Amino acid sequence: MKTHTMSKTILVTGPDLDPTAARLVTEHGYQTVHTPPYADSAVISAYLRETGAEGIVSRMGRLDAAVMDAAPQLKVISKHGVGVDNIDIQAAADRGIPVLVATGANAVSVAEHVIALLLATVKRVLPLDAGLRAGRWEKPGYSGNEIAGSTMGLMGMGAIAQATGVMAKGLGLSLVGFDPYAPDSAFEALGVTRCACFEDLLDRANILSLHCPLTDQTRSILNADALARMPAGGYVINTARGGLIDEAALIAAIQSGHIAGAGLDTFAVEPPAADHPFFKMQEIVLTPHIGGVTRQAGARVGVDAVRGIFQVLNGLPVAPERIINRKLLVAAQAELSSMEKSL
Q1: Catalytic residue of the set 59, 211, 241, 322
Q2: Residue 84 falls in which region: left (phi positive, over 0), alpha (psi -120 to 50) or beta
Q3: Hey, is 87 helix, strand or coil?
Q4: Edge-to-edge strands of the sheet including 31-35?
Q5: pTM
Q6: I need a labelling partner for 323 at 20 to 30 A (CA). Which of 70, 130, 203, 317 fits?
């Protein structure tokens, strides 16, 4: 690794940014330096020390307190997307570092992937394709499922869920949703029936699509009890975070026949182990966490992430909803002020 302290640097944890975002970095007189994909804390810390980076575009790899302590010059972390479970947002707030998200920038791409996984799973596209290639003509005795008229449950009602809802309505699905933090307007705009609790959502959803962040409250929220509440023959689609699902419980629910199939873009551990049981199950369609990875979304997300960094570095205002640890920052600042007064 070269030392880059001579130039102002933005560290990107993972692959190249879209060229439009990379140009924006250059136009501000900065350069980007990239860590290897899924680098561990020690590697990211070493890059921060050697580059003197003032901002991070977070793509792959965990940003914890140890990483932040290796970079006293670090002023802002900007997520390339919206999922911040790989960032210790409290540690960032304690060090006065805002954590930004690119809200809604990849919503359409991820929503399209939800629908692709749904159709591939329900219509059994992959096993039928494999059978045909292996010389089997499986039309005799085949009976498929129509999804029009089914109910899709949206767990979370953010930008991705709303974009998914628009497309799902076009397929003739009825929509129910649960999100204790979303305003009524998010449901009303799409004609989504608002559920009072997660259990209510499960009871109604033939197809459950997960769109919530991974937190201590939501980890393994789709467990054996939750899956048992879903109507028999239901489907699970997850483009959010793998840790939302108890993977062993999902396998058991599919093996028992209660859940008919699943379309999964995310996993509890990424990449999943080579011997993961999912790989042997025809009822599950798998993709490598690429729902938001399209050229169009990459350009929007990259530009949003970079623009946010320069807003912070140049002391310009950032839309409050983009600062994910805003309340924590305010609280940490208040605590610091109070300690200074007492000294």
Answers
A1: 241
A2: alpha
A3: strand
A4: 31-35, 9-13, 55-58, 76-79, 99-100
A5: 0.87
A6: 70
Cα-based distances in Å from 100 to 58, 89, 312, 324: 10, 10, 10, 6
pLDDT band at 5 (very low <50, low <70, confident <90, very high): very low
Are the beta carbons of 97 and 105 closer than 8 angstroms?
no
| Segment holding 31, helix H or strand E | strand 31-35
> Looking at 27, 199, 270, 321, which residue is catalytic?
270
Averaged pLDDT score across all residues of the chain: 94
What is the gyration radius of the CA atoms in the chain, in angstroms? 22
Q: How far apart are the first and last CA of the chain?
A: 43
Q: Does 289 participate in catalysis according to the annotation?
A: yes
Please indicate whether residue 188 is annotated as part of the active site. Answer: no
Residue 222 C-beta-side C-alpha neighbours within 13 Å: 34
**DSSP assigned state of 158:** S
Encode pLDDT of 123-174 as tens digits: 999 999 999 999 999 999 999 999 999 999 999 999 999 999 999 999 999 9
Share of the chain above pLDDT 70, in %: 96
Cα dihedral 254/258/264/269 (nearest 10): -60
Beta-bridge partners for 61: none
Q: Each residue of 62-90: pLDDT tens digit?
A: 999 999 999 999 999 999 998 899 999 99
CB 239 within 8 A of CB 291: yes
- Number of neighbouring beta carbons within 10 Å of residue 18: 20
- Catalytic site residue 270? yes
Q: 3-state SS of the chain: helix, strand, coil percent to 5? A: 40, 15, 45
